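Changelog note: in this version the structure field was regenerated for every chain. One regenerated record is shown below for reference.
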Amino acid sequence: EIDEILQWLSPINHETRHRHIRLKRIKDTGDWFLCTDQFKNWRDHRQGDEVVKNNILGVYGIPGAGKSVLCSMVIDHMISAFANQEDVCVTWLYCDYRNANQTPANMVGSLLRQAVIRLSMSSTLSHEVIHSLLEKGREKKPLDLNQTLKYLTQILKQFSRSYFCINALEECTDEDRRVLLQSLKGLTDDLSSTGCYIRIFFTGRDHVDENVNRYLIADSGAPFNPIHLEANPSDIEKYVLHEIEVDSQRKIGDVPMDIDFKEELVSKIVASSKGMFLLPALQIHAVLEHTKFKDRQEALKTMPEELNGAFKATIDRIHRRETSERAMKILQWVFFAKRPLTVEELQHALSVQPTDIDLDRQHLLKEEILECCLGLVIVDEGTSTVRLV
């Protein structure tokens, strides 16, 4: 019965997206952030022996700077840090403009859903609110935003501290972002007098700062000093070395990459990264797709050092391949689809001709169909849908 209630509270599954982004993390990258004073003061609610008034830590960055991966790391760190403290609740949201269920009520409902799970695991805290929700759930009527906030407030009162980690605020509509931030602000204010401290961590692009200051920080009286994230050069180096290692394992029997060339490859990609991971990802794939040493040298020599140039070069490489027609159809389907397509739906779309009256399942294209897009289209493992990189 509790599983039915969780689905009733919100159709947004907080775990699937988190698992997918976690898979992107490279070992030992991002650790530097957890060691910063700003993060530790936010997490611990203290700066030395003094209580920190500011309960909000924001991270802004350009697309491809690694905000989502950083957020996933923060979430896992918080879960681990407070695993044995039943009076601490950690919840999170990954905003996603492609999610048709992403409404303020469902987003707050996802936080409530996670709080219910956390409370149900406690052997010392009261489960009275959960029983009340079970009764309410039998009515089969969805909660509105105000009702959701009411139940969330009641549950969070049970905890001494609660943490909200919210990724990609820019992927909400302006109106949904305003309502979400105002809801979190009201929740924080309501609970501040009960002894339950709310700590909020979020990521987003620079343009959401105005909304954050107006609807979340407003009248708090506490200083707000967001962090402006750029991909750490050491992390980029580890990422590029990881891709080289994966490539070498894929090509069993090949001669190992020349050490001098490897150093030059890593050095040039790190130097031109422009504070993001996306550009190095396109660059390293453009070099490693070649199997001959001379071709890789030439690819490195002509490698675009700007993001737009890297995208254009990738499209040009697609056009030079025999599979270019299929690749362009995939890009069109993914870009113009009204909602994210599953891998199977994309297979069907590519296998059907305008004159067909039936689907020939024996001739569906294989799941490797995305390889022809050279990394521009990927599978979201959390939702099994395809999306642009």
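Spot check on this record: The chain is about 50% helix and 10% strand. The chain has a mean pLDDT of 88.
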